[in-house]
Protein backbone atom coordinates (compact mmCIF):
# COMPACT_ATOMS: atom_id res chain seq x y z
CA UNK A 1 0.00 0.00 0.00
CA UNK A 2 1.34 3.39 -1.01
CA UNK A 3 0.35 6.63 0.71
CA UNK A 4 -1.11 7.86 -2.59
CA UNK A 5 -2.92 4.76 -3.82
CA UNK A 6 -6.09 5.86 -5.63
CA UNK A 7 -5.01 9.52 -5.66
CA UNK A 8 -4.54 11.76 -8.68
CA UNK A 9 -1.90 14.48 -8.39
CA UNK A 10 -1.33 17.44 -10.69
CA UNK A 11 2.18 18.86 -10.60
CA UNK A 12 2.98 21.98 -12.60
CA UNK A 13 6.38 22.53 -14.20
CA UNK A 14 7.02 18.81 -13.68
CA UNK A 15 8.84 17.99 -16.91
CA UNK A 16 12.12 18.38 -15.03
CA UNK A 17 13.80 19.51 -11.79
CA UNK A 18 11.95 19.59 -8.47
CA UNK A 19 8.58 19.00 -10.15
CA UNK A 20 9.79 15.83 -11.87
CA UNK A 21 11.46 14.60 -8.66
CA UNK A 22 8.17 15.13 -6.83
CA UNK A 23 6.23 13.37 -9.60
CA UNK A 24 8.58 10.37 -9.30
CA UNK A 25 8.08 10.21 -5.54
CA UNK A 26 4.28 10.53 -5.72
CA UNK A 27 4.07 7.92 -8.50
CA UNK A 28 6.31 5.53 -6.54
CA UNK A 29 3.82 5.82 -3.65
CA UNK A 30 0.85 4.93 -5.86
CA UNK A 31 -0.42 8.23 -7.32
CA UNK A 32 -1.47 8.74 -10.90
CA UNK A 33 0.32 11.94 -11.88
CA UNK A 34 -0.54 14.64 -14.39
CA UNK A 35 2.69 16.30 -15.46
CA UNK A 36 1.90 19.85 -16.63
CA UNK A 37 4.55 21.92 -18.36
CA UNK A 38 4.85 24.60 -21.02
CA UNK A 39 6.09 22.14 -23.60
CA UNK A 40 3.63 19.24 -24.10
CA UNK A 41 6.23 16.92 -25.66
CA UNK A 42 8.52 17.27 -22.60
CA UNK A 43 5.56 16.81 -20.25
CA UNK A 44 4.55 13.59 -22.03
CA UNK A 45 8.11 12.27 -22.06
CA UNK A 46 8.46 12.85 -18.31
CA UNK A 47 5.04 11.31 -17.58
CA UNK A 48 6.05 8.23 -19.57
CA UNK A 49 9.22 7.88 -17.45
CA UNK A 50 7.38 7.76 -14.10
CA UNK A 51 7.06 4.59 -12.00
CA UNK A 52 3.95 2.64 -13.02
CA UNK A 53 3.68 4.39 -16.39
CA UNK A 54 3.29 1.10 -18.24
CA UNK A 55 0.50 -0.17 -15.99
CA UNK A 56 -3.06 0.68 -17.13
CA UNK A 57 -4.30 1.38 -13.58
CA UNK A 58 -1.44 3.68 -12.73
CA UNK A 59 -0.72 5.33 -16.04
CA UNK A 60 0.10 9.02 -15.96
CA UNK A 61 -0.65 12.02 -18.17
CA UNK A 62 1.60 14.67 -19.74
CA UNK A 63 -0.08 17.92 -20.77
CA UNK A 64 1.01 21.25 -22.19
CA UNK A 65 -0.19 24.10 -19.96
CA UNK A 66 0.85 27.69 -19.32
CA UNK A 67 -0.05 28.24 -15.66
CA UNK A 68 -0.24 32.01 -16.15
CA UNK A 69 -3.06 31.64 -18.70
CA UNK A 70 -6.57 31.06 -17.28
CA UNK A 71 -7.98 29.27 -20.34
CA UNK A 72 -4.96 26.94 -20.54
CA UNK A 73 -5.22 26.14 -16.81
CA UNK A 74 -8.96 25.47 -16.83
CA UNK A 75 -8.68 23.21 -19.89
CA UNK A 76 -5.77 21.25 -18.38
CA UNK A 77 -7.51 20.69 -15.04
CA UNK A 78 -10.68 19.48 -16.75
CA UNK A 79 -8.66 17.08 -18.91
CA UNK A 80 -6.90 15.67 -15.87
CA UNK A 81 -10.20 15.04 -14.11
CA UNK A 82 -11.78 13.36 -17.12
CA UNK A 83 -8.71 11.33 -18.20
CA UNK A 84 -7.35 10.29 -14.79
CA UNK A 85 -10.75 10.04 -13.11
CA UNK A 86 -10.46 12.73 -10.43
CA UNK A 87 -8.15 15.16 -8.69
CA UNK A 88 -6.86 15.01 -5.10
CA UNK A 89 -3.48 16.75 -4.94
CA UNK A 90 -2.17 19.95 -6.54
CA UNK A 91 1.50 20.95 -6.45
CA UNK A 92 2.12 24.50 -7.68
CA UNK A 93 5.74 24.12 -8.71
CA UNK A 94 6.15 25.83 -12.13
CA UNK A 95 8.64 28.66 -11.89
CA UNK A 96 11.01 30.97 -13.67
CA UNK A 97 13.67 33.48 -12.69
CA UNK A 98 14.39 36.82 -14.33
CA UNK A 99 17.09 38.09 -11.98
CA UNK A 100 18.43 41.61 -12.06
CA UNK A 101 19.27 44.39 -9.65
CA UNK A 102 16.23 46.59 -9.11
CA UNK A 103 17.51 49.54 -11.13
CA UNK A 104 18.00 47.27 -14.16
CA UNK A 105 14.83 45.18 -13.69
CA UNK A 106 12.34 45.68 -16.51
CA UNK A 107 8.56 45.67 -16.11
CA UNK A 108 8.54 42.50 -18.18
CA UNK A 109 10.99 40.81 -15.77
CA UNK A 110 8.68 41.77 -12.92
CA UNK A 111 5.41 40.78 -14.64
CA UNK A 112 6.59 37.43 -15.97
CA UNK A 113 7.92 36.24 -12.60
CA UNK A 114 4.81 37.39 -10.71
CA UNK A 115 2.69 35.95 -13.54
CA UNK A 116 4.09 32.42 -13.40
CA UNK A 117 4.53 32.07 -9.62
CA UNK A 118 1.66 34.05 -8.12
CA UNK A 119 -0.96 34.30 -10.86
CA UNK A 120 -0.11 30.71 -11.86
CA UNK A 121 -0.61 29.37 -8.32
CA UNK A 122 -3.85 31.37 -8.02
CA UNK A 123 -5.29 30.13 -11.34
CA UNK A 124 -4.36 26.49 -10.74
CA UNK A 125 -5.71 26.55 -7.19
CA UNK A 126 -8.96 28.22 -8.24
CA UNK A 127 -9.50 25.56 -10.91
CA UNK A 128 -8.61 22.64 -8.60
CA UNK A 129 -10.53 23.77 -5.50
CA UNK A 130 -13.88 23.30 -7.25
CA UNK A 131 -13.21 19.57 -7.31
CA UNK A 132 -11.63 19.51 -3.86
CA UNK A 133 -14.56 21.33 -2.22
CA UNK A 134 -17.15 19.11 -3.95
CA UNK A 135 -15.46 15.92 -2.67
CA UNK A 136 -14.45 17.48 0.68
CA UNK A 137 -10.84 16.38 0.15
CA UNK A 138 -7.77 18.00 -1.29
CA UNK A 139 -4.08 18.70 -0.74
CA UNK A 140 -2.35 21.80 -2.05
CA UNK A 141 1.41 22.29 -1.93
CA UNK A 142 2.98 25.55 -3.07
CA UNK A 143 6.65 26.14 -3.83
CA UNK A 144 8.10 29.11 -1.97
CA UNK A 145 11.85 29.65 -1.53
CA UNK A 146 14.42 30.89 0.98
CA UNK A 147 14.60 33.86 -1.42
CA UNK A 148 11.25 34.93 0.09
CA UNK A 149 13.36 36.30 2.95
CA UNK A 150 15.23 38.59 0.55
CA UNK A 151 17.94 37.93 -2.04
CA UNK A 152 20.08 40.36 -4.00
CA UNK A 153 19.01 40.56 -7.64
CA UNK A 154 15.68 38.84 -7.01
CA UNK A 155 13.18 41.57 -6.01
CA UNK A 156 10.57 40.04 -8.34
CA UNK A 157 11.18 36.41 -7.31
CA UNK A 158 11.47 37.25 -3.62
CA UNK A 159 8.18 39.17 -3.68
CA UNK A 160 6.48 36.28 -5.49
CA UNK A 161 7.84 33.65 -3.10
CA UNK A 162 6.83 35.61 0.02
CA UNK A 163 3.46 36.21 -1.65
CA UNK A 164 3.13 32.43 -1.98
CA UNK A 165 3.47 32.13 1.79
CA UNK A 166 0.63 34.61 2.40
CA UNK A 167 -1.45 32.90 -0.27
CA UNK A 168 -0.85 29.55 1.45
CA UNK A 169 -1.91 30.85 4.88
CA UNK A 170 -5.11 32.25 3.40
CA UNK A 171 -5.89 28.99 1.58
CA UNK A 172 -5.47 27.22 4.91
CA UNK A 173 -8.10 29.48 6.50
CA UNK A 174 -10.60 29.46 3.61
CA UNK A 175 -10.36 25.82 2.58
CA UNK A 176 -9.76 24.06 5.92
CA UNK A 177 -13.49 23.61 6.59
CA UNK A 178 -13.77 21.63 3.32
CA UNK A 179 -11.20 18.97 4.18
CA UNK A 180 -8.45 20.70 2.21
CA UNK A 181 -4.90 21.22 3.47
CA UNK A 182 -2.65 23.87 1.93
CA UNK A 183 1.03 24.13 2.78
CA UNK A 184 4.24 25.41 1.23
CA UNK A 185 7.82 24.23 1.08
CA UNK A 186 10.59 26.79 0.83
CA UNK A 187 13.68 25.15 -0.67
CA UNK A 188 17.18 26.47 -0.32
CA UNK A 189 19.73 25.75 -3.07
CA UNK A 190 18.53 22.75 -5.10
CA UNK A 191 20.66 21.39 -7.94
CA UNK A 192 18.44 21.85 -11.02
CA UNK A 193 18.55 23.63 -14.35
CA UNK A 194 17.25 26.74 -12.57
CA UNK A 195 20.35 27.02 -10.35
CA UNK A 196 22.60 25.89 -13.24
CA UNK A 197 21.27 28.90 -15.19
CA UNK A 198 22.15 31.17 -12.25
CA UNK A 199 25.72 29.79 -12.32
CA UNK A 200 25.92 30.59 -16.00
CA UNK A 201 24.62 34.13 -15.42
CA UNK A 202 27.29 34.66 -12.76
CA UNK A 203 29.97 33.27 -15.09
CA UNK A 204 30.77 30.30 -12.80
CA UNK A 205 31.11 26.62 -13.74
CA UNK A 206 28.10 24.68 -12.36
CA UNK A 207 30.23 22.44 -10.09
CA UNK A 208 32.04 25.43 -8.58
CA UNK A 209 28.74 27.23 -7.95
CA UNK A 210 27.32 24.13 -6.23
CA UNK A 211 30.49 23.73 -4.13
CA UNK A 212 30.34 27.37 -2.99
CA UNK A 213 26.74 26.85 -1.91
CA UNK A 214 27.52 23.53 -0.20
CA UNK A 215 30.50 24.99 1.71
CA UNK A 216 28.31 27.82 3.01
CA UNK A 217 25.52 25.47 4.14
CA UNK A 218 25.37 24.09 7.71
CA UNK A 219 24.90 20.52 6.40
CA UNK A 220 27.72 21.05 3.85
CA UNK A 221 25.86 19.94 0.76
CA UNK A 222 23.42 21.28 -1.79
CA UNK A 223 19.87 19.99 -1.96
CA UNK A 224 18.43 17.71 -4.64
CA UNK A 225 14.89 17.36 -6.00
CA UNK A 226 14.49 14.21 -3.84
CA UNK A 227 14.90 16.34 -0.70
CA UNK A 228 11.94 18.50 -1.68
CA UNK A 229 9.94 15.51 -2.93
CA UNK A 230 10.22 13.81 0.48
CA UNK A 231 8.83 16.87 2.28
CA UNK A 232 6.15 17.32 -0.39
CA UNK A 233 5.04 13.70 -0.03
CA UNK A 234 4.64 14.08 3.73
CA UNK A 235 2.72 17.38 3.49
CA UNK A 236 0.40 15.96 0.80
CA UNK A 237 -0.24 12.75 2.74
CA UNK A 238 -2.98 12.09 5.27
CA UNK A 239 -0.32 11.92 7.98
CA UNK A 240 -0.17 15.73 7.69
CA UNK A 241 -3.91 16.32 7.90
CA UNK A 242 -3.58 18.53 11.02
CA UNK A 243 -0.98 20.75 9.32
CA UNK A 244 -2.22 23.61 7.15
CA UNK A 245 -1.19 27.13 6.17
CA UNK A 246 2.44 26.37 6.99
CA UNK A 247 5.70 26.96 5.14
CA UNK A 248 8.39 24.35 5.75
CA UNK A 249 11.94 25.48 4.94
CA UNK A 250 13.93 22.64 3.37
CA UNK A 251 17.33 24.25 3.06
CA UNK A 252 19.95 22.35 5.07
CA UNK A 253 19.72 25.09 7.68
CA UNK A 254 20.91 27.82 5.29
CA UNK A 255 18.40 30.27 6.73
CA UNK A 256 19.86 29.85 10.22
CA UNK A 257 23.33 31.19 9.30
P1 LIG B 1 13.34 24.28 -13.36
O1 LIG B 1 14.29 23.14 -13.39
O2 LIG B 1 13.66 25.52 -14.10
O3 LIG B 1 11.89 23.73 -13.77
C1 LIG B 1 10.79 24.59 -13.83
C2 LIG B 1 9.80 24.04 -14.82
O4 LIG B 1 8.65 24.94 -14.84
C3 LIG B 1 10.35 23.98 -16.25
O5 LIG B 1 10.06 22.73 -16.83
C4 LIG B 1 9.60 25.12 -16.93
O6 LIG B 1 9.35 24.90 -18.32
C5 LIG B 1 8.28 25.11 -16.20
N1 LIG B 1 7.54 26.36 -16.42
C6 LIG B 1 8.02 27.62 -16.51
N2 LIG B 1 7.04 28.49 -16.77
C7 LIG B 1 5.90 27.78 -16.84
C8 LIG B 1 4.54 28.11 -17.10
N3 LIG B 1 4.16 29.37 -17.33
N4 LIG B 1 3.62 27.11 -17.12
C9 LIG B 1 3.99 25.82 -16.90
N5 LIG B 1 5.25 25.45 -16.65
C10 LIG B 1 6.21 26.40 -16.62
O7 LIG B 1 13.09 24.78 -11.83
P2 LIG B 1 13.25 24.03 -10.42
O8 LIG B 1 14.57 24.40 -9.88
O9 LIG B 1 12.87 22.61 -10.54
O10 LIG B 1 12.17 24.85 -9.57
C11 LIG B 1 10.86 24.38 -9.33
C12 LIG B 1 10.18 25.30 -8.32
O11 LIG B 1 10.96 25.35 -7.12
C13 LIG B 1 10.05 26.74 -8.81
O12 LIG B 1 8.84 27.29 -8.33
C14 LIG B 1 11.22 27.43 -8.13
O13 LIG B 1 11.00 28.81 -8.00
C15 LIG B 1 11.26 26.71 -6.81
N6 LIG B 1 12.56 26.76 -6.14
C16 LIG B 1 13.68 26.26 -6.73
C17 LIG B 1 14.91 26.33 -6.04
C18 LIG B 1 16.19 25.80 -6.61
O14 LIG B 1 17.23 26.02 -5.98
N7 LIG B 1 16.18 25.11 -7.75
C19 LIG B 1 14.95 26.93 -4.77
C20 LIG B 1 13.78 27.43 -4.22
C21 LIG B 1 12.58 27.34 -4.90
P3 LIG B 1 10.37 25.50 -19.46
O15 LIG B 1 11.61 24.72 -19.31
O16 LIG B 1 9.66 25.22 -20.73
O17 LIG B 1 10.54 26.94 -19.12
UniProtKB/TrEMBL annotation:
Top-level taxonomic group: Bacteria
Residue ranges occupied by any Ketoreductase domain in the UniProt entry: 7-188
Pfam families registered for this protein in UniProt: adh_short_C2
SUPFAM superfamilies: NAD(P)-binding Rossmann-fold domains (SSF51735)
PANTHER family assigned to the protein according to its UniProt record, in alphabetical order: 3-OXOACYL-[ACYL-CARRIER-PROTEIN] REDUCTASE, CHLOROPLASTIC, SHORT-CHAIN DEHYDROGENASES/REDUCTASES FAMILY MEMBER
UniProt xrefs under SMART domains: PKS_KR
UniProt name for this protein: SDR family oxidoreductase
Amino acid sequence: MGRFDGRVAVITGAARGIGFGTAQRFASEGARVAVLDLDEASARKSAAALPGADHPRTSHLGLGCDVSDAASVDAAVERVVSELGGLHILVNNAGITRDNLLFKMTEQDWDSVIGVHLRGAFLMTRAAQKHFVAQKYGKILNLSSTSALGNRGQANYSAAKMGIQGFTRTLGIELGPYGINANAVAPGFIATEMTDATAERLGLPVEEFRKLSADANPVRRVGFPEDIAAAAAFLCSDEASYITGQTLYVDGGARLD
